[in-house]
Automatic annotation (TrEMBL):
TM region(s), chain numbering: none
Keywords: Oxidoreductase
Molecular-function annotations in GO: oxidoreductase activity
Name under which the protein is recorded: Enoyl reductase (ER) domain-containing protein
Origin superkingdom: Eukaryota
Domain Enoyl reductase (ER): residue ranges: 19-341
InterPro entries tied to this protein: ADH-like_C, ADH_N_2, ER, GroES-like_sf, MDR_fam, NAD(P)-bd_dom_sf
Lineage start: Eukaryota, Viridiplantae, Streptophyta, Embryophyta, Tracheophyta
Length: 346
């Protein structure tokens, strides 16, 4: 059977803040069967993860592009791949059968033609919505869990600061920190997000960084005795201000630097004298470095969700056509929680 398959491409490299007009939706004839003897697998995409790291792949050059396989450059006009959950429609590979649910690196499209190597895992059954496997139970959850517990080695009662705190990773870091018994403050880009952090997610406090004139004194106000752990999602001026306010032997986990992705003029220059004399640890990481703790993360997080101790915040849009605005929206602060495209009804 032949269908029309819609997919998203970039028209050209994107060097600064992305715009919807940088993208194009293409349509191609697509066969929903595999040739005999082929080991191809055809997947109907159900949920597509929308993630900020893709912007570095869309640039003509970024130091991230050679670092790890999932960060390889995206060629204008060619399909874009990313984390997707789909259902097998047809398979020439004996390990995968029609209707299997699979999570892998597939196209930003309605259907994907994939090889076994693109599939990270099968999802055998789920008591939760499938989309959770892209966020709270997937790489966002692992980033929050491993970055916080493995890198920062937090202790109950410590003071924790999280940036982009209402986002996919940030909201989970804050919730894990509260579950451990830390004092947690988050920053986010709107009053609505601030209210969510304080009223729904149990953060001790939160502020809208866009309304603050001097981030050093803002952090001093929220942490008069200093910060033990800073979970950095944004880099730039917030990282500089956090370093000024870190306690002696404070730990900074650098998960991402989103304020720098679309602004080549913005690079954090933290006070390194503070780093030396306060003996601050600053460490970058990738979730992929922590597959050894995946099982531990997964079991604990499932329990927290089941018991209602951890809230799941998703921001869902329908249809392939909404992928450009969903992606661009990450850099405007449009999303609250994990940004997902739901194609289940398509
Ligand atoms: N190391 C890893 O393995 C790993 C894995 C996943 C994600 N990450 C990184 O973690 C960070 C968060 O990713 P996510 O998937 O959870 O995305 P997200 O936080 O759900 O979405 C991005 C959010 O970043 C904030 N933002 C956008 N531009 C900003 C700017 N110029 N300054 C400050 N905040 C800005 C916006 O919220 P506001 O309204 O609050 O501005 C936006 O909603 C990103 O830096 C990402 O690259 C790293």
């Amino acid at each position: 059977m032949e269908v029309k398959n819609k997919y998203v491409v970039i028209k050209h490299h994107i060097e600064d803040a992305p715009k919807e007009s940088n993208f194009e939706i293409k349509t191609v004839d697509f066969t929903l069967s595999v040739e005999s003897g082929s080991d191809d697998i055809i997947v109907k995409n159900l949920y597509i993860s929308i993630d900020p790291y893709q912007i570095s792949r869309m640039k003509s050059h970024s130091s991230s592009q050679g670092a790890i396989s999932f960060a390889l450059p995206i060629t204008p006009g060619e399909p874009i791949d990313g984390a997707v959950i789909g259902k097998v429609v047809a398979s020439g590979n004996a390990k995968f059968h029609k209707d299997d649910l699979v999570l892998g690196v597939f196209s930003w499209a309605e259907y994907s033609l994939v090889k076994e190597g693109n599939i990270l895992r099968k999802i055998e059954s789920s008591e939760f919505p499938l989309s959770y496997y892209l966020g709270v139970l997937g790489f966002n959850g692992l980033s929050a869990y491993a970055g916080f517990f493995e890198l920062c080695k937090p202790v109950k009662g410590e003071k924790v600061f999280v940036s982009a705190a209402s986002g996919a990773v940030g909201n989970l870091v804050g919730q894990y920190a509260k579950l451990l018994g830390c004092y947690v403050v988050g920053c986010a880009g709107s009053q609505k997000k601030v209210a969510l952090l304080k009223e729904k997610l149990g953060f001790d406090d939160a502020f809208n960084y866009k309304e603050e004139k001097d981030l050093n004194s803002t952090l001093k106000r929220y942490f008069p005795d200093g910060i033990d752990v800073y979970f950095d999602n944004v880099g730039g001026e917030m990282l500089e201000a956090a370093i000024v306010n870190m306690k002696t032997f404070g730990r900074v986990a650098v998960c991402g630097v989103i304020s720098e992705y679309t602004n080549t003029g913005m690079r954090a220059s933290p006070n390194m004298l503070d780093v030396v004399y306060k003996r601050i640890s600053i460490k970058g990481f990738l979730a992929a470095d922590f597959l050894n703790v995946f099982e531990d993360f997964f079991i604990k997080t499932l329990d927290y969700i089941r018991s209602g101790k951890l809230k799941v915040i998703e921001d869902v849009s329908p249809a392939v056509e909404s992928i450009p605005s969903a992606f661009v929206g990450l850099f405007r602060g449009d999303n609250i929680g994990k940004k997902i495209i739901n194609l289940e009804q398509e």
